[in-house]
From TrEMBL:
This is LysR family transcriptional regulator. Residues 29-86 form the HTH lysR-type domain. Belongs to the LysR transcriptional regulatory family. Residues 1-21 are annotated as: Disordered. It comes from Actinomycetospora straminea. Keywords: DNA-binding, Transcription, Transcription regulation. Gene3D superfamilies: Periplasmic binding protein-like II, Winged helix-like DNA-binding domain superfamily/Winged helix DNA-binding domain. InterPro entries: LysR-type_TF (IPR050389), LysR_HTH_N (IPR000847), LysR_subst-bd (IPR005119), WH-like_DNA-bd_sf (IPR036388), WH_DNA-bd_sf (IPR036390), YidZ_PBP2 (IPR037402).
């Protein structure tokens, strides 16, 4: 049996022909296996997965056997005394999280929501920079107000930008600044906090004490997060600031992380644009200097970064999601 994505199997897709999804096809699936699949792929251990689901170890083993037959794949294989995911299982691991989260939201809609007793899970897509700014406050608030909540944080990757419509239906929301990819009538948003771009250089950089004009910056090597391998993408949040400066950076280091950028600037002749909240926190311990972005012919000063929480309109009436939105706004106001 050829392998195929879990999503396509659920929809009834088969190679070489198109099949319209049907309720009868879905009815033939044991949807209880979704939870077993999620925990088996999370834990990579049958005993721990059984404990998470609340079943016996033999029951979890039986579920794994059924899943292996369904996908015609081992899913978990032995390696050096422990289980590892097969390539197909690694693909399924991400998909099943979204499917289970969507199911939890679906069956929780319309019910009264009590944060003190709920076992609801929330899945957010955000950058590591956002975790550095809001993570501690959010984790602490949940521990006190909603101790039973399971928070799943997925880090932004370059690839997510291509499918924001589908992504937004499978998670509780995205924290990101405005960009054209969010210009959709089915997306809602609210502002959380603001920041701005600053320049980061090593304290020993030859230009650390010089006037950093756009011409000087254009001649320096750069560290750029989330930059494509070729050209420069409008999906990169700092694109507008670079455009204001009239700079197409000489990118020497690309990294899918904001928190990694200062470490890749330290001890080098590279320069980077970094959010000021992050720059001020890490600069002293890494021997870096923070400099203002220069004025340019296009604009006198750097534009603000406005971090917003985005969610799909289908979640507007969900009381649990409304509570989450209000909590995020409250925490953002305290930044």
């Amino acid at each position: 049996m050829p392998r195929m994505a879990f999503r396509d199997r659920c929809r009834g897709h088969h190679p070489g022909r198109v099949r319209t999804p049907s309720s009868s096809h879905l009815a033939n699936l044991d949807l209880n296996l979704l939870v077993s699949l999620r925990e088996l792929l999370r834990e990579r251990n049958v005993t721990r997965a059984a404990a998470r689901v609340g079943v016996t170890q033999p029951a979890a083993s039986a579920a794994l056997s059924r899943l292996r037959r369904h996908f015609d794949d081992e899913l978990l294989t032995r390696h050096n005394g422990s289980y590892v995911l097969t390539p197909l299982a690694a693909q399924l691991a991400e998909q099943v999280e979204g499917v289970c989260a969507a199911a939890e939201r679906l069956f929780g809609t319309g019910r009264q929501f009590d944060p003190a007793t709920t076992r609801r899970g929330f899945t957010l897509l955000l950058a590591d920079y956002t975790i550095a700014v809001l993570g501690t406050a959010l984790s602490s608030a949940l521990a006190v107000r909603a101790p039973g909540v399971e928070l799943r944080l997925r880090l932004v990757r370059e690839s997510f930008t291509a499918d924001i419509a589908e992504t937004s239906r499978l998670i509780d929301g995205v924290v990101a600044p405005p960009s054209p990819r969010f210009d959709r009538p089915d997306l809602r948003s609210v502002e959380l906090f603001r920041d701005r771009w600053v320049l980061l250089l090593d304290a020993a950089h030859p230009a650390a004490d010089d006037e950093l004009t756009p011409a000087v910056l254009a001649a320096l090597p750069w560290v750029v997060p989330f930059a494509p391998d070729r050209g420069f993408s409008t999906a990169v949040p700092m694109t507008r600031e670079l455009a204001r400066l009239g700079i197409e950076p000489d990118t020497r280091v690309r990294v899918e992380s904001y928190l990694g950028v200062p470490h890749l600037v330290a001890g080098t002749d590279r320069v980077a644009l970094v959010q000021e909240r992050l720059a001020r926190e890490v600069a002293p311990r890494l021997g870096l200097v923070v400099r203002e972005c220069p004025a340019s012919e296009r604009a006198p000063a750097a534009a603000e970064i406005r971090e917003r929480f985005w969610w799909h309109a289908d979640l507007d009436g969900d009381p649990a999601h409304r509570w989450l939105r209000e909590l995020l706004v409250e925490l953002g106001a305290g930044v």
